[in-house]
């Protein structure tokens, strides 16, 4: 057991990124873990990270980091704090996302010490058209724990003042891939199935869902980031998200990809 504090900062609407962060943390075997889950909320005050390592994790949206995750990460500053930078993607590609997250964290005072791209079930995956369904699976989790063990060994061998601003080179390009225009859309709802249980309201990272007059669920397309957390959490299967990308992803990205590391 390593006697240090480990912070985890995670944005993870459907839980894949958070799962990987937790497995890497398990592999690191540290005495204290504090988790900052910024999926729905952010700290009210600016947070200055200490000397212990920090895991930062977010999903890949369109080969980039979702804007809302970057916005929320602005609440955290490092003081040459070593960062383990992780992205999860739905078995298509992570393109410039890992580089973008490393660059942003560097600008905020962190030193990316290690990085990884993991695969998690695609937000658009369904039973009929599964895309990376069930991932991260046991093999992914085991890989994440092994990576964590390697990272803590590398970290414990270094003195803090030995860190250089660019400890690692990750895959990805700058200028980053251009983001597509925002096309307002939100999951549709089958009112007959909906029991107004409120589970979808609880998981929505952007507070796009509201209960109108105690009898209707409304989803604000302008706020929706299409994460599908509400679709996956609805116990009545009353929510669905229609997109032509599902069939394309299902047909073209069925071959299993494996995690990649930069250490
Ligand atoms: C709007 C949107 C865009 C996405 N873009 C990509 C992508 O470019 N490449 C990819 O492989 N997966 C993509 N995904 C899938 C997510 O990266 C994947 O489901 C991820 O594991 C979700 O992380 P989470 O479970 O932590 O929320 C996208 C998902 C959404 C909702
Ligand atoms: S989670 Fe499903 S059943 Fe519950 S309020 Fe939302 S749409 Fe209705
Ligand atoms: S309404 Fe949109 S942003 Fe909110 S949980 Fe559903 S898909 Fe995600």
UniProtKB/TrEMBL annotation:
One of its GO terms (molecular function) is 4 iron, 4 sulfur cluster binding. Transmembrane segments: none annotated. InterPro entries: 4Fe4S_Fe-S-bd, 4Fe4S_Fe_S_CS, EFR1-like, Flavoprotein-like_sf, PSI_iron-sulfur_center. Signal peptide: none annotated. Keywords: 4Fe-4S, Iron, Iron-sulfur, Metal-binding. Residues 185-214, 215-244 form the 4Fe-4S ferredoxin-type domain. Gene3D superfamilies: 3.30.70.20, 3.40.50.360. Pfam families: Fer4. This is Ferredoxin. It comes from Bacteroides graminisolvens.
């Amino acid at each position: 057991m390593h006697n240090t504090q480990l912070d985890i900062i995670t944005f993870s609407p459907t839980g894949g990124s958070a799962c990987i962060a937790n497995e890497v943390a398990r592999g690191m075997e540290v005495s204290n873990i504090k988790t900052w889950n910024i999926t729905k909320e952010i700290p009210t005050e600016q947070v200055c990270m200490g000397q212990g390592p920090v895991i930062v994790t977010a999903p890949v949206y369109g080969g980039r980091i979702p804007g809302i995750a970057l916005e929320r990460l602005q609440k955290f500053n490092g003081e040459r704090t070593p960062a383990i930078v992780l992205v999860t993607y739905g078995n298509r590609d992570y393109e410039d996302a890992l580089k973008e997250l490393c660059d942003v964290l560097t600008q905020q005072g962190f030193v990316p010490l290690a990085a990884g791209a993991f695969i998690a079930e695609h937000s658009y995956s369904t039973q009929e058209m599964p895309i990376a369904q069930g991932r991260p699976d046991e093999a992914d989790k085991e890989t994440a724990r092994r990576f964590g063990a390697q990272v803590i060994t590398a970290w414990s061998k270094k003195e803090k003042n030995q860190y250089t601003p660019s400890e690692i080179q990750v895959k990805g390009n700058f200028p980053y891939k251009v983001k597509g225009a925002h096309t307002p859309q939100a999951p549709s709802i089958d009112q007959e199935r909906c029991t107004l249980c409120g589970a979808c309201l609880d998981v929505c990272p952007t507070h796009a869902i509201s209960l109108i007059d105690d009898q209707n669920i409304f989803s604000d397309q302008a706020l929706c980031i299409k994460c599908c957390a509400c679709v996956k959490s609805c116990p009545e299967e009353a929510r669905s998200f229609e997109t032509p990308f599902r069939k394309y992803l299902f047909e073209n990205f069925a071959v299993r990809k494996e995690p990649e590391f930069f250490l």
